[in-house]
Amino acid sequence: MTVHTTETPEITTTECRACGAQVSGLNGRYACGVCGWVNAWSEGHSALPTAAQDPDYPDPATGAGTA
Hints:
The chain has strands at about 10-15, 20-25. The chain has no helices and two strands. The protein has a domain at about 10-40.
């Protein structure tokens, strides 16, 4: 399965809520490399793709990934 998207991910930056380090992520989803803090997936700026849109999603007929 090939997924075509017209939306380019946006690199966003914020301050880590736990330690104050500057962190960058994609579309408002962050993970701090200093202390390990991550924000909730639901705080992102866009919808996440569905499992079926993942190129490694198992093919029901064979049980294998499609990539």
